Amino acid sequence: MCAAPLVAQSPPAWISLGPTFPLTGSIARITAGAICHDESTSTTHLFTGGWATLTTAAAPSPRTFSTLSSSDPDSGYGSRFVFLFGGIAAASLSNELWQFDAVTSNWQLLPTAGGPTPRFDAGMAPFGILQILFGGVDATGPRNDCWLFFPGLGWFPQPVPTNVFARRGHGMCQGPGATIVVFGGSDGVGGFLGDTWVIGNANSWTQITGPGPSPRAAKIAFDPIRGMVVLHGGVDATGALNDDWEFDGLTWRQVGATGAPLSMDSFGYSLAGPTPGIIGISQLGPAATDTLFFTPSPAAFTSTSQSSCSAGSGRLALVNVNRALPILGTSLPMRVTGLTPTSLLLGGFELTSAGGPINIPLATCPQCIQGLTFSTAMVTQFVSVGSGPGTGLWNLPILNIPALNGARIELQAIVVDAGAVHPCFVMTSNPASGVCGR
User: Fold this and answer.
1) Which residues are CB-neighbours of 4 under 8 A, at least 6 positions away?
2) Spatial separation of the C-alpha atoms in residues 192 and 181, rounded to whole Å
3) Domain-located, residue 44
4) Burial (CB count within 10 angstroms: exposed 0-12, middle 13-18, buried 19+), residue 373
5) pLDDT tens digits for 257-315?
6) Do 388 and 325 belong to one domain?
7) How far apart are CA 6 and CA 9, in angstroms?
8) Residues facing 205 on adjacent strands
9) What is the pTM of this model?
10) Cys-Cys link to 316, which of 112, 214, 338, 339 (CB 3.0-4.6 A)?
11) Is residue 43 part of a domain?
C-alpha cells in the first residue's frame, strides 16, 4: 500500500518582491530579466530582481493599449528583442512597430507598409523568428485578422477560421510545443469571450473544449520552465477578478494561489527574480505599487529547458498529465505534444540517488542494464501514440523497489521524424524531473 508522497505539496502563492514605482504597460522577457515599457510616460524599465529605468536614445511616443511581445528564446535571436505594436497615440490609432534591443538599450521604428491597420488592444506573441499578431480594434471596430511579421521582410496576412470571433483585450502568448495560445477577450460591444485557441504549425487553429476560466479579458504568460500558460484574474462584466489558472496545452486547471491581488496592471515572464518565473505589477499589492512573483505548487516534474531544436516548428513539449508526484508501484502518465503523423517516439529516463548507487536486480527491471550498480543510468522505452492530434502518451511504470524511494527521475521524450518538413529530424523535448515517493 502506498503511503503519502515523499515530497509534500504546498499551495501556489503570489509573493511580494517589494514596492516599485507605478508602471502601466506589459512585461516581456529579455536575457537579463524582463522589460516593462510604461506607455503613459514612454519610459523603459529593466527588471533584474528590482526595477531600474533605462536611458534610451529613442522610444515610442506616449500611448495607451499598445501590445508588447518578446523574441522567441529558442530562435536565433534568443531573448534579445522586445516588440511594441500600435495603440492609441495622441488621440490617433497607430500601427507603428517598434523594436527594443536589450544589448544596445535602444528602440528602433520598423517599416510597417502593407501591415495591419492602425489599432489598439491587439494580441502578439513570438513564433520562432516571427511575430504573430491577432485581433484588436481599428477604425471599423473589433478585428479577427491575423498577421505574421518576418524580420527584414515585413507583414504578411494569415487566414483565420470563421468561427474565431473578433476581439480585443485577449490573452496571447507562446504555449507548449511550439504553439501560440489565445484566450478570451472582449467582443468590443459589451460582451466577453471565454474560448481558448491553440495556433500550431501551418497556421492551424484548434479550439480547446472542456472546463476553463470564465469569459473575461485577461493577460496570460508562458512559463517555459514548467511548460505552463498562466492566467491571473482579468476583467468581466462584474469587475476585476483575481483567480489563477494554468493551461498545459490541452486542459485548464484552476489553482488556488494565495496572496493574489485583485488586479494585475502588468503581467509577464522574467528570467530574473527568486527564480525565473511569472511576475506582475499591481497597484493594489501589499505596497502602494507592488511587484509580485508567482510561486507554483511543486508538481511532480519541472522542465529545465526548451527542446534541442531551435527551428520555429517541430519542437516537443513533455508534461505530467496528472501533475502528481511519482509514487512507487504506480504508473506515471506523461504527455508529449508537437508530434507529426510520421513521428517515431522514444522515451529516455534516468535515475539518480543522492545517497549513493542504486542497485536494481535485472529480474525486477527487464529493461535495465545487467548487474546494475550505478549513480546514474539511462534506460530507453517506446512511447505509445495517444488519440489527440499531435500528442503521444507515455505511461512510465514506477517500480515498487525500496532503492527508488527518494531517487530523482529525469525524463525526456525523443522523436525521429524523417518525414518532417522542418530540419529537426531528431528532436528532444524539454527535460522533466521529480522525486519518487511512497
Assistant:
1) 437, 438
2) 17
3) yes
4) exposed
5) 887 777 776 788 888 877 788 888 876 555 557 888 888 765 434 433 333 444 333 35
6) yes
7) 10
8) 199
9) 0.71
10) 338
11) yes
